[in-house]
Backbone:
């Protein structure tokens, strides 16, 4: 019997501009993705639900339901990496996109070289957080990190707080796992950027936005950190477990 062919990674391109959609399709296909195009937000939501993709590129300026709302709707149901695409080039649009659960962003006009580089960085991380209904915790043979009432199953990429599962995006999981592997270390934003996103980046606001999302999901509040501490002017570390 011959070797089983690997299942191709799937991508959904949600983009109403046919030329840009075609550019993205060709670029992602050259990286081994099986690409499906959705011309609007409603169709995009349906195709993400049907195809369970590994990657979604999502235009902010879609007609009808815009990309930010699409991201809000798909993020609770998919563990795909999400790259927002914006024509505006304004930081506020990128930050809002990250706050809604996107992992990264690109600004039009799109550079195919930059797209490929960012996709490669995303897929170098451990990923695919799978929710298993009814599971009470990690299997005995998995690598597990514990910090007080916080439990991270490294092998399954799942997190529990006080016995309840916490749904994280792949980027949020990577940040938390990095912190928990060295819980007494203070991680600067630059170091986290290099560790999670790879070298050659200088956009530390990526760390700040995703870290803010992570801390909210863990139950941390401003001035009332329980798990992750903001070391003013330096970076972040795990708060000493009580």
Residues:
């Amino acid at each position: 019997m011959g070797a089983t062919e690997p299942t191709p990674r799937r991508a959904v391109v949600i983009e109403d501009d046919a030329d840009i959609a075609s550019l993205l399709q060709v670029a992602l296909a050259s990286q081994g993705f099986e690409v499906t195009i959705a011309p609007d937000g409603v169709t995009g939501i349906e195709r993400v639900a049907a195809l369970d993709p590994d990657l979604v590129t999502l235009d902010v300026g879609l007609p009808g339901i815009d990309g930010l709302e699409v991201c809000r709707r798909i993020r609770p149901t998919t563990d795909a990496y999400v790259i927002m695409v914006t024509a505006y080039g304004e930081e506020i649009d990128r930050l809002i996109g990250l706050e809604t659960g996107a992992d990264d962003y690109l600004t039009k006009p799109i550079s195919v070289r930059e797209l490929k580089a960012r996709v490669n960085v995303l897929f170098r991380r451990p990923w695919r957080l799978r929710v298993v209904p009814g599971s009470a915790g990690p299997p005995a043979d998995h690598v597990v990190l514990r910090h007080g009432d916080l439990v991270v199953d490294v092998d399954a990429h799942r997190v529990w707080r006080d016995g309840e599962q916490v749904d994280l995006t792949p980027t949020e999981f990577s940040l938390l796992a990095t912190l928990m592997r060295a819980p007494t270390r203070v991680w600067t934003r630059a170091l986290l950027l290099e560790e999670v996103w790879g070298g050659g980046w200088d956009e530390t606001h990526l760390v700040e936005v995703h870290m803010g999302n992570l801390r909210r999901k863990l139950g941390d509040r401003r001035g009332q950190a329980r798990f992750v501490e903001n070391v003013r002017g330096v970076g972040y570390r795990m708060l000493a477990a009580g």
